[in-house]
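Q: Please design a sequence for this.
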């Protein structure tokens, strides 16, 4: 029997937090899902040869380089994963598309709307597939939530409350990083983009926004001990109105002391409601007004094989998936789209849409008025 499949050869740019997560995702997706290709981790790039070499050894790549252009020019590669800082996304992605590679780019797609627009145009000039890393959308509990909403069990949806909060910038002494760069840095682009993607995934397009962004920590020290003025937002909130008629709010906050991973939402309807917290990512809570009054209450839906594709990882309910498995699910769907089995799950146009929301919220905050998206 011949088990051989065509190869999909992968190059990863950046070996930090997300670089490692991508590697894990590719390795797991290849083994857990029935994919049309064999996924091969071939080459990795990082800022210098020492970092790149050591990442290649540790993560199982055949080659490494200190120049990302070498990956783009490598004829052996079919797919480029971009896990480098946001300011590099556009140049790398457009070069990769021009070199006929599929592109998997971390969120946010790019720091500015002009750049994301250029990236969309470049993607439309090729037949190569694109994907932006909005991994929370790959949680089986999100498809379950969407199914409950579409079934009408919540009645007419009246409101949405979403938050993405963490505390990794809460110490005023923590250093200035690329996440503080004036163009494209800031909490709304970094964390708020995730909750905006979740809001639209579950309830459809947002049509109007009224934002309020603040910079709480006004200065930070660089690695060479220079004081740098902070021009980006630490906390952003926004009132939103959906096209459907529902209203709501989102908050993005990286000063939320003690809060490690709050990607949470509550959705209320005329007949029921659901709520979710990323810190308990295998649970979805569902309240139905149709339940008998004396037993009414939020019921916990615990992830199990019925919440597909949980079954691919584990046959037993309640054993739980984690953050890295969400990346493997995102990758498996992207790979299926490369083989034209399904549409691209979240392509550059979808990433551009999220950047449009971020940009409109910032403008609305500056103008102190509601704006149409
Ligand atoms: P990180 O700082 O941990 O890693 C970035 C890596 O890129 C580092 O290894 C750095 O040395 C490398 N790099 C910098 N300049 C480079 C260059 N010129 N060429 C090659 N490599 C270069 O950052 P991170 O947290 O992994 O974030 C990377 C991207 O992932 C960002 O776009 C971020 O917004 C995104 N991100 C997404 C999620 C998610 O849940 N989807 C979570 C965290 C970060």
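A: Design:
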């Amino acid at each position: 029997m011949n088990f051989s499949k065509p190869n999909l050869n992968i190059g990863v740019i950046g070996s930090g937090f997300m670089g490692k997560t991508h590697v894990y995702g590719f390795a797991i997706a290849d083994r857990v899902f029935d994919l049309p290709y064999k996924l091969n981790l071939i080459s990795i790039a990082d800022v210098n040869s020492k970092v790149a070499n050591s990442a290649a050894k540790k993560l199982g790549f055949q080659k490494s380089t200190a120049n990302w252009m070498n990956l783009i020019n490598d004829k052996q590669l079919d797919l480029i994963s971009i896990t480098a800082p946001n300011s590099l996304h556009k140049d790398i992605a457009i070069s990769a598309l021009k070199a006929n590679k599929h592109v998997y780019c971390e969120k946010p797609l790019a720091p500015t709307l002009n750049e994301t627009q250029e990236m969309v145009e470049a993607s439309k000039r090729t037949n190569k597939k694109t994907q932006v890393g909005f991994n929370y959308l790959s949680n089986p509990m999100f498809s379950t939530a969407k199914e409950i909403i579409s079934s009408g069990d919540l009645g007419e949806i009246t409101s949405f409350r979403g938050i993405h909060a963490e505390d990794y910038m809460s110490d005023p002494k923590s250093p200035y990083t690329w996440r503080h760069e004036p163009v494209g840095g800031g909490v709304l682009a970094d964390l708020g983009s995730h909750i905006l993607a979740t809001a639209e995934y579950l309830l459809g397009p947002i049509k109007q926004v009224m934002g309020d962004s603040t910079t709480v920590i006004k200065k930070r020290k660089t690695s060479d001990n220079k004081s740098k003025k902070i021009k980006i937002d630490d906390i952003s909130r926004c009132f939103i109105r959906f096209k459907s008629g529902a209203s709501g709010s989102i908050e993005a906050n990286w000063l939320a002391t003690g809060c490690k991973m709050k990607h949470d939402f509550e959705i209320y309807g005329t007949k029921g409601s659901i709520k979710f917290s990323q810190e308990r990512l295998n649970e979805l809570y569902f309240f139905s007004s149709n339940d008998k009054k004396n037993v009414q209450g939020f019921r916990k839906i615990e992830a199990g094989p019925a919440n597909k594709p949980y079954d691919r990882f584990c046959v037993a309910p309640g054993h739980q998936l984690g953050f890295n498995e969400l990346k493997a699910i995102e990758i498996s769907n992207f790979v299926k789209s490369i083989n034209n089995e399904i549409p691209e799950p979240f392509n550059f146009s979808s990433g551009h849409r999220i950047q449009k929301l971020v940009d409109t919220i910032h403008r609305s905050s500056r103008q102190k008025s509601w704006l149409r998206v």
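Q: Thanks. Anything notable?
A: The chain has a mean pLDDT of 96. Residues 13-19, 45-47, 51, 68, 83-86, 88, 106-107, 133, 135, 190 surround nicotinamide-adenine-dinucleotide (CB under 6 Å).
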